[in-house]
């Protein structure tokens, strides 16, 4: 092989070492300092960006805590306002319902009691007159019919119609007695 020739081997080895050391020197003096500066700059930028990232993360956490505090305060405030308005509304409704019950239902209650008095009076008068003038069997039969009529009409009609029916029945009974 020509590379291992003894005559040219030493010169080939010399030139190989010369170019290798020259290449090493050029890389060491020119390219490695540039590469080291670029790497140092990258490390510095990376460090700054990591610090920036850390500061952004801390700022994000602070904003999130402030948001949660604000949201919890807003929820507490809205709940208290809702409860306040609800209690005001309930009090207003109770007050108005009480006043309405006092005025409107008082009249209804008085008319109902008046109706009860009239019906009991008419029944007592009917019993009194029926027992004096009619035979006993006919009296009981009329009383039962009147009671059944009163029960059915009490369920189906209002208090004013009941008053009219009871007065009409007493008039009919008076006519039958004559």
Automatic annotation (TrEMBL):
GO terms for cellular component: mitochondrial membrane; proton-transporting ATP synthase complex. Its EC number is 7.1.2.2. InterPro entries: YMF19-like (IPR044975), YMF19-like_N (IPR003319). It is a single-pass membrane protein. It is found in: Mitochondrion membrane. Keywords: ATP synthesis, ATP-binding, CF(0), Hydrogen ion transport, Ion transport, Membrane, Mitochondrion, Nucleotide-binding, Translocase, Transmembrane, Transmembrane helix, Transport. The chain crosses the membrane at residues 12-32. It catalyses: ATP + H2O + 4 H(+)(in) = ADP + phosphate + 5 H(+)(out). Residues 158-168 have a biased composition (Polar residues). It is an enzyme of class 7 (translocase). One of its GO terms (molecular function) is ATP binding. GO terms for biological process: ATP biosynthetic process; proton transmembrane transport. Residues 158-178 are annotated as: Disordered. Residues 2-78 form the ATP synthase YMF19-like N-terminal domain. This is one of the chains of the nonenzymatic component (CF(0) subunit) of the mitochondrial ATPase complex. F-type ATPases have 2 components, CF(1) - the catalytic core - and CF(0) - the membrane proton channel. CF(1) has five subunits: alpha(3), beta(3), gamma(1), delta(1), epsilon(1). CF(0) has three main subunits: a, b and c. Belongs to the ATPase protein YMF19 family. This is H(+)-transporting two-sector ATPase.
């Amino acid at each position: 092989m020509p590379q291992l020739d003894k005559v040219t081997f030493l010169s080939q080895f010399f030139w190989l070492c010369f170019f290798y050391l020259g290449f090493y020197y050029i890389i060491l003096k020119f390219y490695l300092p540039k590469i080291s500066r670029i790497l140092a700059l990258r490390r510095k930028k990376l460090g700054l960006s990591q610090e920036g990232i850390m500061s952004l993360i801390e700022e994000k956490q602070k904003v999130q805590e402030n948001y949660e505090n604000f949201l919890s305060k807003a929820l507490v405030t809205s709940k208290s306002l809702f409860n306040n308005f609800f209690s005001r509304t309930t009090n207003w409704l109770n007050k108005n319902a009480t006043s309405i019950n006092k005025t409107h239902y008082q009249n209804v209650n008085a008319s109902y009691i008046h109706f009860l008095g009239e019906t009991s009076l008419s029944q007592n008068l009917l019993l009194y007159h029926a027992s004096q003038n009619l035979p006993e069997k006919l009296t009981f039969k009329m009383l039962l019919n009147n009671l059944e009529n009163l029960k059915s009409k009490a369920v189906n009609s209002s208090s004013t119609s009941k008053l009219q029916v009871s007065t009409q029945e007493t008039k009919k009974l008076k006519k039958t007695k004559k």
